[in-house]
């Protein structure tokens, strides 16, 4: 219902990539968070992290490893708006090439 109303109002619904839920809220350990992200990284991913967890967050420590490793692999980080713009350009290019 909420999604339908939001779409009717012209909003774009953005969720995370289904394979990139780090479950960091459950404090699985820094290495588990790091491995989950690095093992599943794909172009265009939106990775789900939580900035508030009970106890000491492992997310910040994990990000100190994740971000440099992804940069080494050639990934770059963009805003959601930038990502949506890239996706729109790719879709338009695909539409033009199949015509």
UniProtKB/TrEMBL annotation:
Keywords: Hydrolase, Metal-binding. Gene3D superfamilies: Glycoside hydrolase/deacetylase. Residues 1-78 form the NodB homology domain. It comes from the Eukaryota. The keyword Metal-binding applies. GO terms for biological process: carbohydrate metabolic process. SUPFAM superfamilies: Glycoside hydrolase/deacetylase. InterPro entries: Glyco_hydro/deAcase_b/a-brl, NODB_dom, Polysacc_deacetylase_ArnD. One of its GO terms (molecular function) is metal ion binding. Signal peptide: none annotated. GO terms for cellular component: membrane. This is NodB homology domain-containing protein. It comes from Phytophthora cactorum.
């Amino acid at each position: 219902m909420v999604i339908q109303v939001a779409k009717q109002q012209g909003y774009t619904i953005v969720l995370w990539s289904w394979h990139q839920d780090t479950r960091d809220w459950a404090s699985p350990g820094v290495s588990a968070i790091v491995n989950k992200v690095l093992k599943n990284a794909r172009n265009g991913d939106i990775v789900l992290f939580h900035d508030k967890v009970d106890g000491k967050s492992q997310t910040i420590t994990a990000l100190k490893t994740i971000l440099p490793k992804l940069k080494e692999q050639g990934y770059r980080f963009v805003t959601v708006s930038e990502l949506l713009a890239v996706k729109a350009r790719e879709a338009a290019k695909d539409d033009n090439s199949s015509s």
